[in-house]
Amino acid sequence: MSELSSLDNAQPLLVAEGLAKNYGRLAACRDVSFALYPGEVLAIVGESGSGKSTLLQLLSAQLAPSAGHVAYRMRDGVLRDLAELGEAERRFLFRTDWGFVHQDPAQGLRMGVSAGANVGERLMAVGWNHYGRIRDIASTWLERVEIDVGRIDDAPKTYSGGMRQRLQIARNLVTEPRLVFMDEPTGGLDVSVQARLLDLMRNLVSELGLAAIVVTHDLAVARLLSHRVMVMKGGRVIETGLTDQVLDDPREPYTQLLVSSILPP
Amino acid sequence: MNAPTYNFAYLDEQTKRMIRRAILKAIAIPGYQVPFASREMPMPYGWGTGGVQVTAAILGPDDVLKVIDQGSDDTTNAISIRKFFGKTAGVATTTSTTDATVIQTRHRIPEASLHAGQVLVYQVPIPEPLRFLEPRETETRRMHALAEYGLMHVKLYEDIARFGHIATAYAYPVKVNARYVMDPSPTPKFDNPKMDNCAALQLFGAGREKRIYAIPPYTTVVSLDFEDHPFTRYRFNAPCALCGADDSYLDEIVTDDKGGRMFVCSDTDFCEQRQAAGHHGTESAAPHKEKAHV
């Protein structure tokens, strides 16, 4: 089994080739190619308007690319082009094998229903039909993301920003996805809450062996979470490499600017 | 008497054809909500404009019509719709469940079992079972198309989390023919099992929402539930005060301002039939009977 999985790990999970997206004359994203391997965390950094979020939407098949394609290795080991999947398959993938953590938890959660139901929704969507078991799993996940289990029946609209974000993570991870997309997961949180959340995410990612694509403008997030970094500017990937290498020894003038614009601790 | 200025059953023939097409499609895809061009009717939305249009489209001169509102044949809504078709179609009307060929209903399924050849027409206020969980119609349609019904269980989960049991007592979601999840209109969940494998054709009309859906005869209708919290029927734990029935759905009637109350069958026809057959409860219906208007 371990032999098999190590063999699996040698094959990319997600492959992007020549991805581009144009909005009329505006090229939001140009010629992006890379491969993501199982268990690998890739950070996409760049300033606002550099095409990070567009790229994330292209990769997660929420937007159709103007050119190029994205392929994903399904659980049966077959690499399939996302554009060729039917809508039902794509949506199924989205709520089982993938997770998507939004910057604004209100987009990723049902704010009016209890935390337990929020976490359990994906399970019920794949046919779980036992209240007690769903609730047990939901409690376990709330514990894992450090939310007091006593608040399982409270709606996320009564939660603080940091708790909402952690709940959103729990909701996404409950079906044990292999790939998680994160769009500015720590945006809008204060620094101490950010630090806790990052710590939590780092632990979860390594425990579960998740692959993740994290879009962020915060280089500290990239440094803490990711193995590899892609720097974007004007819709293009201008530099890519191991996180430490890119952040400690940036090659491109823009990356140098980005790195030097962080205040030294 | 037939009012000569109206077409048979009020609606013009083209409209009836359009509605019949929607009905045929609805029967072909059990539980699927078929859009139709709902017309203005001479009654306000919420009074059964959808049901009335469906009834108008299927009614023939030989039909016998029964109209009930919350099980009762003698509420304003039931009487006015019955008179409406008496006037515009000249059809025979009845209060007897067994004699009727078309039964238009609001919020109840009659206690007497329905037989083959009968049509039960429901008045539906909100046809979309997912509406309060997912407000986007584009999204709910897609969810129906892909049979993504996890969200429906979220609602039941919430009930149990909050009340300890599935507290939804009416408009209890069902799965029709193992495919579409459907809102059975606000009938009490007591009536849900009657929809399963029913001999009569069941048609649902939502006038304001412009949707028609159907359950063909002898179709499986399953109420959604959890393995550890199975679907249960609910009725007040009392016999009917008038006919003594202990298996019918009861209305609670407040009789004074000192906490007095009585429980009577919601299905008036069922209750009267039983009384005529000699059954009686703790109260008598006789002293309360008003003199018939001449």
Automatic annotation (TrEMBL), chain B:
Entry's EC annotation: 4.7.1.1
Pfam families per the UniProt record, alphabetical: PhnJ
Statement: the UniProt record of this protein carries the keyword Nucleotide-binding: no
Keywords carried by this UniProt record: 4Fe-4S, Iron, Iron-sulfur, Lyase, Metal-binding, S-adenosyl-L-methionine
InterPro entries: PhnJ
Major enzyme class: lyase
GO molecular function per UniProt: 4 iron, 4 sulfur cluster binding; alpha-D-ribose 1-methylphosphonate 5-phosphate C-P-lyase activity; metal ion binding
BP GO annotations: organic phosphonate catabolic process
Function noted in UniProt: Catalyzes the breakage of the C-P bond in alpha-D-ribose 1-methylphosphonate 5-phosphate (PRPn) forming alpha-D-ribose.
Family from the record: Belongs to the PhnJ family.
Protein name, per record: Alpha-D-ribose 1-methylphosphonate 5-phosphate C-P lyase
